[in-house]
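Sync notes, pocket subgroup
Present: LS, DG
LS reminded everyone that the earlier model was apo-only. Rerun requested with FNR included. Inputs:
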Amino acid sequence: MVSIQSHRKDEHVSLAIKFYNKTSHAGFDQLRFVHQGIPEISLDDIDTSTTIENIKMDFPIYIEAMTGGSEYTKKLNQKLARIAKSTGIAMATGSQSVALKDDSVASSFEIVRETNPNGIVFSNLSASADVSRAKAAVKMMNSDAIEIHINTPQEMIMPEGDREFNWIKNIKSIQEELACPVIVKEVGFGMSKETIQQLVDAGVKNINISGKGGTSFSKIENYRRKKQEMDYLEDWGQTTVESLLEAQPFKDKTNIIASGGIRTPLDAVKAIALGANSVGIAAPILYSLIKNGEEETIEFINDFIYGMKSIMTVLGTKNLSELQSKKLILSSDLLSYVSQRGLP
Ligand code: FNR
């Protein structure tokens, strides 16, 4: 019998594809680099490597948390793991909570490690999970890190969602007791400086601000509700760019990761210039896999990396720290946001 949770995982995939938009609304079009005509660099000089604590990554992009928990998403996870292996990028799975409740679906996550034994794999669980569940999730895939997601609007729109959000105690103890890096992430609603401060105070060393402008879980869950739509929440949250601006005061205190509406190599390069040390991409990779297959998705990722390197060449920045020292021009809307929020 298919459980309600497994069915939900399949629905999330089909709705993310249904609503997929190749155009980002995450605010990247409100940022510009200043062109410099004589960069004094060659493409071969570009080093895209980065780290998440002790984890060394050759490329600053990874497959963001999406699937697992059903027969269909097991196949997707296997394909995504093959894509990650072939391109050399890291991969997060979707929430493993379903597999901690029901052993029979654990294989839909275990298959990721079986497929890519030496790859970089991130676990994923809700912030409602306690330390023992977080440890079990990491053990299930022998993961290199764990993502803990926060997603209050999504839960409130889901009729079967959580209604209690006393999360900081769990986050603090997971951060303290897990041996691997812990990443606290949003799911596309973005973060404020106040939220980031709470996480920094809890000792969190990696924060993925996952902003608005790409996949919208308020839209997906509203569609699943079928009645009593809460579509007034569809525009809730800070865009990825606004969230990165909110994160500016914390760049020296915690590792910033960006996701949400990263659709082009230029979006990814701008996110890094705003302080992100790596970038998660979710729906574009899933869309490419489902519509075009594995081979084309490998090509899509390799082209994406090449595109990032090309832009870094044009900018004359040979590595991520040089890219992060580049100043961006902000639109007047963004300047107004910065001033109203009292951001540096
Ligand atoms: C997600 N996302 C997600 N995030 C998370 O932390 N745990 C999860 O289980 C899921 N599940 C999930 C399923 C599907 C089908 C999609 C498309 C996404 C959210 C994801 O990791 C990311 O934060 C957002 O999708 C924003 O990135 P994109 O899609 O705009 O690149």
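DG: Residues 12-13, 16, 64-66, 94-95, 124, 147, 149, 185, 187-188, 210, 214-215, 259-262, 281-283, 286 surround FNR (CB under 6 Å).
LS: DSSP finds 15 helices and twelve strands in the chain.
Action: DG to write up.
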